[in-house]
Write a structure and sequence with these properties.
The protein is mainly alpha-helical and 138 residues long. It is built from five helices and two strands; from the N terminus they run H-E-E-H-H-H-H.
C-alpha cells in the first residue's frame, strides 16, 4: 500500500471511529447524577437520579381554568341519590363529575362507565358504588 493510500485508510478508520463514538454517546445525558444504593451490596440495586429532571417534574403546573362558583342550588337539590357531594353547588358537582369522567372512564364510554344512561340515580353499576366509597374516604 502506498503512503497516500495508508494515510487515506487511517483517516477513514478515524472518521468511522469518531462517528461510532458520537452515535454511542449521543444518548448520554450531561450533568451530575445522584446515586443511592437501595439493595444489599453486590446486587446492583441503585437509584440514579438526574437533579435537572427532578426540578422539571416537581414543578406544579398552573390550573387550566378556575373552579366554578360554589353559589347556587346544591347538588342534593338538583339531582337524585347524591349521597356524598350533596353540599357542593350543582355547577361544581358537574365540574367534578366531568373531571372524574376524564380521569377514570374510557373515552368511548364516558358517563356510562359508572352510570346507567336510563337512570343516572341508579346504583346498579359497581363502578359507581366504588367511586362513591372512594369519595367518602377522602
Amino acid at each position: 500500500m502506498s503512503g497516500l493510500g495508508r494515510i487515506f485508510a487511517v483517516r477513514i478508520v478515524a472518521a468511522t471511529g469518531l462517528i461510532g463514538a458520537t452515535v454511542a454517546l449521543g444518548g448520554c445525558e450531561l450533568g451530575p447524577k445522584q446515586s443511592q444504593q437501595t439493595g444489599f451490596r453486590g446486587t446492583g440495586m441503585a437509584q440514579i437520579v438526574d437533579p435537572d429532571h427532578v426540578v422539571k417534574l416537581g414543578a406544579i403546573p398552573p390550573p387550566p381554568y378556575a373552579l366554578p362558583d360554589d353559589s347556587g342550588p346544591r347538588a342534593r337539590e338538583a339531582y337524585q341519590n347524591v349521597q356524598v357531594l350533596g353540599d357542593v353547588s350543582a355547577e361544581r358537582f358537574n365540574h367534578l363529575m366531568a373531571a372524574m369522567n376524564q380521569w377514570v372512564a374510557p373515552p368511548e364510554q364516558g358517563c356510562n362507565y359508572c352510570h346507567n344512561p336510563e337512570n343516572m340515580a341508579s346504583d346498579e353499576k359497581y363502578t359507581k358504588v366504588v367511586a362513591r366509597r372512594m369519595l367518602q374516604m377522602t
